[in-house]
């Protein structure tokens, strides 16, 4: 982070033809981006969205309203350009990359989909750790590699999305481990389960927390035991963005759980995160509180895929445009406040 660039952006904001603070958080986010990009006038023309897909063994416990085959089917939908994030990426002029980390319903080789399969799914974490140590390291490395590809293309902002039936259960369990909560405090409807389904999900999470209790004080082990391929890849990407100086726009519930894991693993990650939206998944508010984060928008979104971050991107671009292109009092010949 370049504090001199941030200070220059603060001085510029003070000279623009508006009362100080009149553009609210748009001013603050422009200043933050300036510091992160190391320039007085930040830009978000080149944005990359990476969607990581992976299945979860815990689906065996009946924690999802959708069948597990949907994950692989959605990978095909991403490749065809028919998913929400596909539409959003096209409209925004953002580069979309899809990474298949392992699905039960293998979609096979597809144009526009990178195969980085670590298995057909994670293990059922109420019986054993979700991932082996090797799978976890490979998933983290896959996230890092996505960031390296983004940097090679001159990307100015990175968004990580996910697809994986059962991943709200994994994200909830991981959050419980990191924050010392019970399953009942975090379990939510996910893709649309009813109240009895939420109670079943909470019980499954509590069983997993009890099984892995001795390992959960270590955030790396918590991620290995309770996370998923796509959650680990997002955590790896967040860490890589911080290490390589690339701003990371966090999506919703799943991505925020991964971001919390990344921050617990490497506290310096927090300064490189921007937070896009307030997810409708109930546990998201606890995650945001733990990260001392405030969302840019609240539209009741709960789709995942990076869609909430993509929807918030125009606000960030407008913040940059206002910061960069508004006239100063001197340039406009407007009298300043006495």
What does this structure look like?
- The chain has helices at residues 3-15, 25-37, 69-80, 84-92, 133-152, 167-179, 183-186, 195-211, 219-226, 229-244, 253-265, 284-290, 307-325, 329-332; strands spanning 47-53, 95-100, 113-115, 157-163, 248-250, 273-275.
- The chain has 338 residues and is an alpha/beta fold.
- It folds into two domains: 3-42 and 323-332, 5,6-Dimethylbenzimidazole Phosphoribosyltransferase, Chain: A, domain 1 (Orthogonal Bundle); 47-314, Nicotinate-nucleotide-dimethylbenzimidazole phosphoribosyltransferase (CobT), large domain (Rossmann fold, 3-Layer(aba) Sandwich).
- A six-stranded parallel β-sheet has the order 3-2-1-4-5-6, with helices on both faces.
- The longest helix has 20 residues, at 133-152.
- The model has no long low-confidence stretch (mean pLDDT 95).
Task: Record the SSE blueprint.
Elements: H1 3-15, H2 25-37, E1 47-53, H3 69-80, H4 84-92, E2 95-100, E3 113-115, H5 133-152, E4 157-163, H6 167-179, H7 183-186, H8 195-211, H9 219-226, H10 229-244, E5 248-250, H11 253-265, E6 273-275, H12 284-290, H13 307-325, H14 329-332
Parallel strand pairs: 1-2, 1-4, 2-3, 4-5, 5-6
Main sheet strand line-up: 3-2-1-4-5-6
Structural class comes to: alpha/beta
CATH class value of the largest domain: Alpha Beta
The CATH level-2 architecture of the largest domain is identified as 3-Layer(aba) Sandwich
Mean pLDDT across every amino acid position? 95
């Amino acid at each position: 982070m370049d504090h001199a660039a941030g200070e220059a952006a603060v001085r510029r904001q003070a000279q623009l033809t508006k009362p100080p603070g009149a553009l609210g958080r748009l001013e603050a986010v422009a200043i933050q981006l300036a510091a992160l990009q190391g320039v007085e006038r930040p830009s978000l023309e080149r944005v990359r969205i990476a969607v990581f897909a992976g299945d979860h063994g815990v689906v065996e416990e009946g924690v999802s309203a959708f069948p597990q085959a949907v994950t692989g089917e959605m990978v095909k939908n991403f490749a065809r350009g028919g998913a929400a994030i596909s539409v959003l990426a096209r409209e925004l002029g953002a580069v979309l990359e899809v990474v298949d980390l392992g699905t039960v319903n293998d979609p096979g080789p597809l144009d526009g989909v990178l195969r980085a399969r670590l298995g057909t799914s994670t293990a059922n974490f109420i019986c054993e750790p979700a991932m082996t140590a090797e799978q976890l390291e490979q998933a983290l490395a896959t996230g890092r590699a996505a960031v390296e590809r983004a940097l090679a293309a001159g990307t100015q902002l990175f968004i990580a999305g996910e697809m994986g039936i059962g991943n709200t259960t994994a994200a909830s369990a991981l959050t419980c481990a990191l924050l010392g909560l019970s399953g009942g405090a975090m379990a939510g409807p996910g893709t649309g389960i009813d109240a009895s389904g939420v109670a079943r999900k909470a019980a499954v999470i509590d069983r997993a927390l009890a099984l892995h209790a001795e390992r959960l004080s270590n955030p790396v082990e918590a991620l290995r035991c309770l996370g998923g391929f796509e959650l680990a890849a997002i955590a790896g990407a967040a860490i890589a963005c911080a290490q390589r100086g690339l701003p990371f726009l966090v999506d919703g519930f799943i991505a925020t759980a991964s971001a919390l894991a990344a921050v617990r693993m490497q506290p310096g990650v927090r300064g490189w995160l921007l937070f896009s939206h307030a997810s409708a998944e109930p546990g998201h508010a606890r995650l945001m509180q733990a990260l001392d984060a405030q969302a840019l928008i609240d539209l009741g979104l709960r789709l995942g895929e990076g869609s909430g971050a993509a929807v918030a991107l125009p606000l960030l671009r407008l913040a940059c445009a206002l910061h960069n292109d508004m006239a100063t009092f001197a340039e406009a010949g407007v009298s300043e406040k006495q």
